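REQUEST ID: PR-0412
SUBMITTED BY: lab tech R.K.
PRIORITY: routine
TASK: structure prediction, single protein chain
INPUT:
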Amino acid sequence: MNLEILNDIPPLTPDSRIEFAQLLFNELTFSHLPVVEGNQYLGSLSENDVRSFEKDKLIGDFSIDYEGFFVKEGVNELEVMETLGKYDTNVMPVLSQDKGMYLGYVELQEVISVYGDMPFLSEYGNVIVVQKGINDHSFSEICQIVESNNTKVLAVYVSNMERDVVQTTVKTSDGDMNGLLQTFRRYGYEIISDHYDDVFLKNLQERSRYLDKYLNM
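STATUS: complete
OUTPUT:
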């Protein structure tokens, strides 16, 4: 993990007062704050929950409301991003690999900035969304199609999956977009994204206009 683990905001403890947590949330843009006892991570409390608690109570009085999400040190940025999204939080506690001790946290904004520097976002290229049945879906085939058209794969990932159909988003280096789209179609992929250079789609639209004109004569 190339993300900086932060410790500038100390975690809550079970004997912290709710009023203290409410004041912290007033100063921060965090959606959650971690709760730690010694080096042991107990969970995180959301701002919404803390706002509803009586300020003279202790954090430990609401242990039932702790949310137990975290990542281990060394995981890749994609897993961190996925966990942040899954739990709808902008702060992710980081625990040690061996004993699961609390090390600090990473912020959503930092994860986003790291992704912004990666080639699949920063490099100029084309984005294509293709669709195929789950039993016929193949990352290796998709990469082969791209490279056979003298373009490079900058990123490829499953962007949607419903029932027996998989949608895959592919970012490629700049090249012959129309030729690439036609190759995908020859291999049985449906093109979900719209492309200015899609001659096949233009031909269909042109024929559709002729057909409408003929039917309306």
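NOTES: The two ends are 65 Å apart (CA to CA).
REVIEWED BY: pending
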